[in-house]
Amino acid sequence: MAASIGAAADWASTYHALKFYKVRETNPLLRPLDSKPGSLVTMGALIDAGGFSAWNLSVGRKHPRVAAAGLWAMAAFRGYLALHNLRNERRSERR
Length: 95
Prior knowledge:
By secondary structure, the protein is mainly α.
């Protein structure tokens, strides 16, 4: 649940930064969608859902504690990315 909340915060801040500020997505898979923030967030969320599912199915079945630790690490990283997006908004100019 924490990893999902962290991902949602990251995608919300990414959408806001792309929509209202002159920032660029750094993920090379998602960069072609810079001009369409809604599509970018949708594609990114689908990638996240697939990653979370793959993590839980591959690691979670045999090592539930390792899987939980990995999800907490994902949550912390996504929280960092949300804060990073907010800092980038302050540094860039509005559209």
